[in-house]
Amino acid sequence: MSTPAPDRPVRRRSSTRAQLVAAAEAVFDETGTTAVSVEAIVTRAGFTRGAFYSNFRSVDELFFAVYEQQAALVSELLGGMLDDARAAEHPSLDDVVRGVVGGLPPEEKWYAIRSVLITRARHDETVNRLLREHTDHFHDTLQPLLVGSLARIGLRPTVDPALFTRAVVAAHVGAVSQSVLHDDTEQVRVTAVEGCILGLTEPLPEESRAVR
């Protein structure tokens, strides 16, 4: 009987990829831009160019991995916060709003990288396509959680649920972008999200409430 091949190469590659992502985060923290060289990344990580190209095709792809990693953490936190709001015995609008704001924290790195990528997406078709794919996935994950939480308190969107979800996220992102100008940044975020929700929802019909 043949002996299974050891999985060390796979683990080593996974470790190398993770270290390259961490190095990219560190370089971004120092420079504030994704327009950095492969050499800058591999020098920081302590690897060769060969190690880089074994894991990523370009620096853009690497920074998408950084963005995706941050987005996954935010999605997990957001899901937990909205699940808690939806599971409350007597949930309120404030519970939902706090769930969104608590689940979409002002992670400067995530928003900063996203902002840089959006700027590049205006002139780079590949970056545009990748960013759209990541953004669509994030909104698709959030939509049922958000709409379901609102249904628990007797509200429904007055516009397409996908558009509603994007509007709520946009309200939060806009508030975060202004946070440097305000002392109480959380209150600004809460007000922006609550205002967006109130402006784009209506009471559920009584028969729909009865079913719930």
Description of the structure:
This protein is mainly α and 212 residues long. It folds into two domains: 1-56, Arc Repressor Mutant, subunit A (Orthogonal Bundle), CATH 1.10.10; 60-211, Tetracycline Repressor, domain 2 (Orthogonal Bundle). 74% of the residues lie in helices and 3% in strands. The protein contains ten helices and two strands. The protein has helices at residues 8-31, 38-45, 49-53, 59-87, 93-103, 108-121, 125-152, 161-177, 185-199, 206-211, and strands at residues 155-157, 201-203. Strands 1-2 form a two-stranded antiparallel ribbon. α4 runs antiparallel to α5. The longest helix is centred in the middle third of the chain and has 29 residues, at 59-87. The chain is elongated. It starts with 7 loop residues before the first helix and ends with a helix.
Please sum up the structure shown:
With 212 residues, the protein is mainly alpha-helical. The chain has 10 helices and 2 strands. The radius of gyration is 21 Å and the shape is elongated.
> What amount of the residues lies in strands?
under 5%
Which architecture name of the largest domain does CATH use? Orthogonal Bundle
CATH topology-level name of the largest domain: Tetracycline Repressor, domain 2
Helix content: over 70%
The CATH class label of the largest domain is: Mainly Alpha
- How many alpha or pi helices? 10
Number of domains: 2
Any idea what the CATH superfamily of the largest domain is called?
Tetracycline Repressor, domain 2
Radius of gyration: 21 Å
Low-pLDDT residue intervals, each spanning 5 or more residues = none
Q: How widely separated are the two ends?
A: 58 Å
Question: What overall geometry do the principal axes of the alpha carbons give?
Answer: elongated
Largest sheet: 2 strands, antiparallel
Structural class of the secondary elements? mainly alpha
